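pasting for ref
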Amino acid sequence: MAAILGLGHRPQFVQPGDRLHQATSSPRFRARPNSSEPRESEHHMPDIDWDALRSVALEAMTHAYVPYSHFPVGVAAIVDDGRVISGCNVENASYGLTLCAECALVSSLHMTGGGRLVAFTCVDGKGGALMPCGRCRQLLYEHSAEGMLLETVSGIRTIDEVLPDAFGPRTLEAYAE
């Protein structure tokens, strides 16, 4: 069992797919359709073991396919049911077809049962924190739990802080009305 959310003992090794002792079922991380409606600006900081989550991202980064840029990226996240998922970037000679690590993460999310992302980290080849690009912030927003936390170069931020006034499903619903 992983203890990345600080719900018990801390194991030596955390693997993608491990579950926490319990799901993060607090109202703070309830799943809801993402929308352009404002979320709470103040956020409760759950006891997330960012070092353990980062170690999963570092392991994922070792699987990156980067023959062109030589810039490996690994990501890891906690899902609202306690799963830990990860992904890495995969380049292509036709650069526009390159997949960011966040794309692999969201694919893993759906391959392993869906849910909403609660906490996220992204690392470079040296283990340093990276801010997801704008496209990936939008991708993460679409799959985030309310108040999702991201480890960034400037500290822990919510998804709404790194993607204010986001475009989401509710934007499309409002347009269709």
